[in-house]
Fold this sequence. Notes:
The protein is built from 8 helices and no strands. By secondary structure, it is an all-alpha fold. The chain has 2 domains: 67 residues, no CATH class; 83 residues, NusB-like (N-utilizing Substance Protein B Homolog, Chain A, Orthogonal Bundle), CATH 1.10.940. Helix 5 crosses helix 6. The chain is globular, with a radius of gyration of 15 Å. It starts with 9 loop residues before the first helix and ends in a 10-residue tail after the last helix.
Amino acid sequence: MLNEACPMDSQKLNPRSRKDSSRSSQRAYAFQVLYALNFTPGLEVLETTFDRFRDDSYSSETGRGSFSWSIIHGVWNNLPKLDEIISSYSKNWKIRRIARIELTIMRVAVYEMLYCPDIPVKVAINEAIELSKNFGDEHSRNFVNGILDAVARDINNGKFGISKGF
């Protein structure tokens, strides 16, 4: 089975998550922190980067124990497995050749698809496509969608040993 499960759903993590601290905005924050970590990797910088990225617009929703922190921490702790999975679906693209924006978006989505039982596969894919529209170029969403759809099919076919709604 897979390593680390998504610890809790967002309602348990942050009861105020119905306002500006939606899962979408927390996911975008998590993406931005994880993207920055592509350039300064190391466990010792994870918390520092997380804290430095916070500003007034994110402060109420991004503390330790928030949904964004659970995504950041979960992706970080499962990075080798996530990259292995993405690599296996990215035919003709070695992981080091995939743009960091698209790779980071797919890491978040694959983590949610495999480790967060309360996030439907389709939601993880749709959110990844939205991130790629906001942060990637005009080709990003098609590339991200193609890889994630293939992962989703295999989840549905039982390849990863989990049962999850599409």
